[in-house]
Amino acid sequence: MGSVDLWAYEKNALKKGFSIIAGIDEAGRGPLAGPVVSAAVILPADFSVPGVTDSKKLSSGKRNALYESIYAHAVSIGVGIVDALEIDRINILRASLLSMAMSTANLKPRPDCLLIDGTFSIPNTLPQETIPKGDSLSISIAAASIVAKVTRDRLMERYDLDYPQYGFSKHKGYPTKAHKAAIRRFGCSPIHRRSFKGVKEYV
Q1: d(CA 35, CA 41)
Q2: How many domains does one find in the chain?
Q3: What is the pLDDT of residues 67-105, one digit of tens each?
Q4: Is 196 a member of any domain?
C-alpha cells in the first residue's frame, strides 16, 4: 500500500477549474464543556511543511509547531467558534456546521471550492465536497484540523484559569474520569454543555 497523496483532492478540484480551495475541519464535538471550533485553510500550491496530517495523530508539541508553520505559510486562515450556550440551543451537529460556515466566511480571498471533513455539507452556497476522514486524506483539511484543535486547546487552557477546579487544561473538556468526578463534585460551570449526558444530570 503506497502512501496517500494528500494533494489528490486539491489537484482534482484544480482540474475541475477551481482555483482557491479551502479545507475545513472542526474540533470539539465530543467534549462536555467549551466551544466547538472550526478552521478553514487555503494553502499555497508550493506549501511544503512536512508532517501535516490529522491532528489527532500528532503530539501536542508537534501540533503546536505545525500550527505556527501553517500560519506562516497559508494564503488565508479563518476560524469559527460556537459556544456552549449555542450548542445547547441548536444541538452539537448544527453548531459544528455553523462554526465551519463561520470559519469559511472569515477567509480572504473568498474560496471557490470547499473540501469539508466528514459527511455533512455546511450552510454555504459555494461548491463543496464532503470527505469522510478528510483530515487524513487532504492536506488542506489536515491543516485545518491542526488549526482548529490548537485554537480550541488554547481556549480551554484559558478557561482553566477561570474555572481551575475542573482541570480543563488537562482534558480540554472531554469526558475523562477526572472531569466527570469534578462535575459531580462542583456541578457545572458556565461553559459546560447542559444538554449533554454527563452534565445535564447535575444542572
Answers
A1: 19
A2: 1
A3: 999 999 999 999 999 999 999 999 999 999 999 999 999
A4: no
